[in-house]
Amino acid sequence: MKLKDKKVLQLVSDDFEDLELWYPVLRLREEGAAVHLAGEKKDHEYTGKYGVPAVSDVSFKEVDPNDYDALLVPGGWSPDKLRRYEEVLSIVKKMNEDNKPIGQICHAGWVLISAKILEGKKVTSTPGIKDDMENAGAAWVDQPSIIDGNIISSRRPPDLPDYLRDFISVMEK
User: Fold this and answer.
1) Of 9, 89, 97, 130, which is the most buried if we count CB atoms within 10 A?
2) What would you give as a GO molecular function for this chain, any one (predicted)?
3) pTM above 0.85?
4) In this model, does residue 1 exceed pLDDT 90?
5) Under 8 Å CB-to-CB from 68, ≥6 apart: which residues?
6) Sequence-ordered list of residues with C-beta below 8 angstroms from that of 140, at least 6 positions apart, any chain
7) Domain made up of 7-172: CATH architecture
8) Could you say which of 100, 107, 155, 156 is catalytic?
9) How many CA atoms lie within 13 A of 4 on its CB side?
10) How confident is the model over 11-26, as pLDDT tens digits?
């Protein structure tokens, strides 16, 4: 149990990429981490792109970033919704200021772009938002997973094993 006593916050809203939300949650729980899902509303059921549900443990407004060791942002179309909540952007900014691991996969980079934390970072994402990442000041690279300080980024579901190995290694430090 590499991550015993660690707490991770996973953001959620409708239209998340099912694998990009659930694979990290389950993998981190296997390592002993407590993973809480945060949505606009507490105890609300959100639906992934392929119909898999996820129920939020807390609302964005209830989250205290100081209570968590790391943050995950799922991909899919969910990031376009998540970045519209000031509470979400505040959580991301605070976690970044505190140098806590922030994982982003696929379209999740949109949330980090809106939080304005990618300037000078080396990242990856789905190629569809490459220009967005570069316009935010990041150096975009096409590889399965990249670690740049506290930010761990990945492209898409087939890259999940590499992404989670990297995310777990950063959390262990």
Assistant:
1) 9
2) transferase activity
3) yes
4) no
5) 7, 8, 9, 36, 95, 100
6) 123, 124, 125, 130, 133, 134
7) 3-Layer(aba) Sandwich (3.40)
8) 107
9) 2
10) 999 999 999 999 999 9
